[in-house]
Design brief:
Structural class of chain A: mainly beta
Strand content of chain A: 25-35%
Structural class of chain B: alpha/beta
Distance between the termini of chain A: 50 Å
Oligomer: heterodimer
Distance between the termini of chain B: 17 Å
CATH superfamily of the domain at 4-115 and 204-222 in chain B: Thiolase/Chalcone synthase
CATH architecture of the domain at 4-115 and 204-222 in chain B: 3-Layer(aba) Sandwich
Order of helices and strands of chain B: EHEHHEHEHHHHEHEHEHEEHEE
Strand order of the largest sheet of chain A: 8-7-6-9-10
Shape of chain A: elongated
Chain lengths: 199, 351
């Protein structure tokens, strides 16, 4: 190949046909402009969740909740993804967690969501820390007026009837109060944080 | 210009990885790449990755894979919705900006969960072309027809490229299409999309790869014979196929010129030509002489085409041959988009 500059067709000048102003043919003079087009896109995927999430979903069918421990820091993550984001390494151990925990934070939704007619406002979404877990995960607090939900409130999972259980996180309909004494959270600074491993 | 070298490379390619999520199969590759030069994530000045939500079928899918780097406390990080070769380019630019002397780069893709030929239709023009769902193999066959009818290539030449890829891939443990076939056997194959035969098409694979870059003396500490990046450039042709000459790769020619490919002999070239037709155009655009340059000693993308990693794998394959002393000067190429729309050319040299 020559080391000279490549041929003239690499030049940035527009071809004459593209640089001329666009004029509509007379036949289209009165045509209504197209202001939008609808081009539906649908693609089908056979999604495979991987080792950790497969185990988690299978356990769900038995009303069990699995987490995974970080070998470097000892912290337990749920739902598990097979990797500790703290260590950047594969998790070291599968841990079975209780289906009880406490509300670490919550919100009350007062407007309906399209396509979720099952969610009747007002309803309460919460960040729930399971007993034995180091991080919270998302759930609905049910069987209580949303206004009565509070940080530290103890909750337990409400599972679908046994005959309806699937390999799905939807098996947990929500979380209801246990009536136990509230978890006392003295260290609000800790909420939403996990400790970094030593570099 | 700061001297930057490829000092570590790991890869995995299989026809389908169905039992593991992306982050699950990438974590060992990431760990091995860093460990092979005695580094950990905290040693990395910058981290950049390439992957595609359209393959994963979920938004921000790359975020889950970042967990594999251990991004706590937060790391300096970026992502390209491109082949990992473009992530390497960003990391190279970042090192050129000064202040860091290492970077970690990875790319990965699982095309097996969906139909990659349809997924690739979504990279076409969203108003005029994508709604027609052009199959990516059929689009390449349009270019192939132009090349054949115009006398730019013969079916025999395409079969020779396919036969060479299969023969080379036999010694590559990461290749997925490794059964040897003669030119006559390939020419006897039924067309899949006339004028393309099965051996003209990429061997689609799932997998990924990881690369460590290091600058100057740091590279010399980490690697006995670093693969220095002596030139790198990427260029894009028009998105609209109709305004392009599909029988030539203008952007590759330009990138090769700017990367300095012709300045010296080329011992080996790793080309990201998903089709035999694209490999033919690349050899021409790069000005390679197949008598003096070993083209695709790994088998290339015809032997294993892992979307979003195949281009970065070309750079890794070329670099590892420099480390081993199989050659002194190598060209690696990566592509993206339909019919070689975007092309990156990287010149690697040993000391």
């Amino acid at each position: 190949m020559s080391a000279d500059q490549p041929a003239a067709r690499d030049s940035l000048a527009l071809p004459a046909a593209l640089s001329a102003p666009v004029t509509l043919p007379e036949a289209l003079a009165g045509a209504e402009p197209v202001e939008s087009v609808c081009t539906p896109i649908r693609m089908a995927y056979t999604y495979t969740p991987g080792r950790a999430l497969s185990r988690y979903l299978r356990a769900m069918a038995d009303k069990r909740i699995l987490g995974e421990r970080c070998g470097a820091t000892g912290q337990v993550f749920v739902p598990p993804r097979g990797v500790s984001p703290l260590a950047g390494a594969a998790t070291s151990e599968v841990v079975e967690l209780a289906d009880t925990g406490y509300v670490e934070s919550f919100n009350i939704t007062r407007v309906p969501i399209e396509r979720r007619p099952d969610l009747k406002p007002p309803y309460c979404s919460a960040w729930i820390v399971l007993d034995g877990a180091s991080v919270g995960f998302l759930g609905l607090v049910i069987n209580i007026a949303p206004e009565e939900v509070r940080i530290g409130m103890r909750v337990r999972a409400v599972w679908k009837p046994d005959e309806e259980l699937e390999t799905s996180a939807a098996n947990i309909l929500g979380w209801e109060p246990t009536g136990e004494l509230d978890e006392v959270i003295t260290d609000y600074e800790r909420i939403g944080r996990v400790e970094a491993s030593d570099p | 210009m700061i001297d930057v070298a490829v000092v570590a490379f790991t890869q995995r390619q299989e026809d389908a990885i169905s039992g593991e999520s992306e982050v699950e199969f990438m974590v060992p590759l990431m760990e091995q790449a860093k460990a092979s030069v005695g580094l950990t994530q905290s040693d990395m000045g910058f981290t950049c990755s390439g992957s595609s939500d359209f393959l994963a079928g979920q938004a921000f899918s790359f975020v889950m894979t970042i967990d594999g780097t251990g991004p706590v406390p937060p790391i300096s990080e970026s992502h390209v919705e491109q082949d990992g070769a473009w992530a390497l380019y960003e990391a190279w630019v970042k090192i050129q900006c000064g202040g860091i002397d290492t970077a970690f780069v990875y790319g990965y893709g699982k095309s097996s969960p969906g139909s990659v030929r349809d997924v690739l239709a979504t990279q076409m023009d969203p108003y005029y072309v994508c709604p027609l769902w052009p199959d990516s193999y059929a689009v390449e066959a349009l270019a192939a027809r132009l090349m054949l009818e115009g006398g730019h290539v013969s079916e025999n030449r395409l079969a020779e490229i396919a036969a060479r890829s299969r023969a080379s891939a036999a010694s590559n443990p990461h290749a997925v299409r490794t059964d040897p076939k003669s030119v006559a056997e390939i020419l006897a194959e039924e067309y899949v999309i006339d004028p393309l035969r099965p051996s003209d098409l990429p061997a689609e694979a799932d997998g990924g790869c990881a690369v460590v870059l290091a600058a100057g003396d740091r590279a010399r500490e980490l690697c006995e014979r670093p693969a220095w990046i002596r030139g790198m450039d990427h260029r894009g042709d028009a998105h609209t196929l109709g305004v392009r000459d599909l029988t030539s790769s203008t952007s590759t020619r330009l990138a090769a010129h700017r990367a300095g490919v012709a300045a010296d002999k080329v011992d080996l070239a790793e080309l990201h030509g998903p089709f035999t037709t694209s490999e033919h155009l690349l050899i021409d655009a790069l000005g390679l002489d197949e008598d003096s340059t070993a083209v695709n000693p790994s088998g290339g993308a015809l032997a294993a085409n892992t979307m979003m990693a195949s281009g970065l794998i070309r750079i890794g394959e070329a670099a590892s041959r420099i480390w081993r002393g199989d050659g002194d000067r190598a060209v690696a190429h990566a592509t993206s988009g339909p019919c070689l729309q975007q092309n990156m050319v990287c010149v690697l040299e040993g000391d």
